[in-house]
Design brief:
Largest sheet: 3 strands, antiparallel
Order of helices and strands: HEEEH
Structural class: alpha+beta
Number of strands: 3
Shape: extended
Strand order of the largest sheet: 2-1-3
Helix content: 10-25%
Radius of gyration: 17 Å
Number of helices: 2
Amino acid sequence: MPFLRSWLASRRHMRTFALLDEHGLCRAFRQSAQAPQGLDWVEVNQQQLGWLHKPLPASARIATTVEYSSVATALAA
């Protein structure tokens, strides 16, 4: 029964991130539900091993969205 419960439980969506060095070259990939710590990680739409040690194509990056709380907006007004 625990197996069935874990199978039916919702799973977190795994996102793909690429680590860029100071020259903008891809150094590593990581898949996780949350963004990794650090400023050099960018979210990408897929993982391509051919991108390693090369600049990421512009189409690979996923635009980050900033979410603001409606409560904070209401308090600021």
